[in-house]
Write a structure and sequence with these properties.
Elements lengths: L8 H15 L1 E3 H8 L3 H13 L4 E3 L2 E3 L7 H5 L3 H11 L7 E5 L3 H7 L8 E5 L2 H8 L4 E4 L3 E2 L6 E2 L1 H7 L4 E6 L3 E3 L3 E4 L2 H12 L1 E7 L11 E2 L8 E3 L17 E2 L1
Helix pairs in contact: 2-3, 5-6, 6-7, 8-9
Length: 252
């Protein structure tokens, strides 16, 4: 007898990502049983998720990605979602003063939208995001420090000290994962530290994450939801997947 599932495609793929990230791996048949769909449906979902760079396909199932990915690889993943997020985040850009951008490719999409904000000073710990911002009329500042070869971002004490030397109207940041109770988290302690340094000198923190990060937990804690002015995703603000986050912060 054919199995039927009440989960839509996007919800089903999100459930698969949560399962794979939680356990490190998942089998094709067990996922089909849990989701009450055919193995062929799960196989297509896994192929789509691998194409988005969210897991790695193996014989009989999938495994979680281990460790952070290079900026160029991250930039090519879920580009449409990042464009929607950046368009929403642009509404939070001040007309003057300084802002900070983290080293994420999600926030890097916002850096490409600064041409109409010539009055801003923009600080970042990412050479790629610095280069993007510097191509507009803003005054771009690259926070130096120790280069993390895995992510291409500048981290360490020098980076934290430099990030703390300016005062920002807003800090735009992404996350490796976002959980309703634990808040945002990162793949390394060094990433969390420099983000905290930016945030401590910022009037507001704007968290920009795509929906594939929801419900997950990475290695190093970053921000509790009550510390965040707004949570921006590519989803509609009324999407039920955001229900768990509404009480703690503004959902956009």
């Amino acid at each position: 007898m054919a199995r039927t599932s009440t989960l839509r495609g996007e919800e089903r793929r999100h459930a698969i990502i949560e399962r794979v990230n939680r356990d490190g791996s998942a089998g094709l048949d067990e996922l089909a049983d849990e989701l009450r769909v055919s193995s062929m449906t799960v196989r297509r979902d896994l192929d789509d998720l691998e194409a988005d760079g969210l897991l790695r396909r193996v014989r009989g199932g999938a495994v979680a990605l281990n460790g952070p990915r290079q900026f160029g690889e991250r930039r090519a993943v879920r580009t449409r979602a990042k464009q929607v997020i950046a368009a929403k985040a642009a509404a939070f850009l001040p007309t003057s003063g300084a802002i900070a951008l983290d080293a994420s490719s999600t926030v890097g999409t916002l850096a490409a939208m600064l041409a109409a904000h010539a009055g801003l000073v923009v600080a970042t710990n990412s050479y790629e995001n610095f280069t993007t911002a510097n191509a507009s009329d803003v005054r771009a500042v690259l926070i130096g420090g120790e280069l993390d070869d895995a992510t291409g971002s500048f981290v360490g004490k020098v980076a934290c000290d430099a990030a703390s030397s300016m005062l920002y109207r807003r800090f735009f940041t992404s996350a490796a994962a976002l959980d309703p109770r634990q808040g945002s988290s990162e793949a390394s302690l060094a990433e969390s530290q420099v983000k905290r340094a930016f945030a401590e000198r910022s009037q507001h923190v704007v968290l920009c994450v795509d929906s594939s990060k929801l419900g997950g937990v990475a290695v190093s804690a970053a921000f509790r939801l009550h510390e965040v002015e707004a949570l921006i995703t590519e989803l509609s603000p009324e999407d039920p997947r955001l229900d768990a986050y509404r009480e703690a912060t503004d959902v956009r």
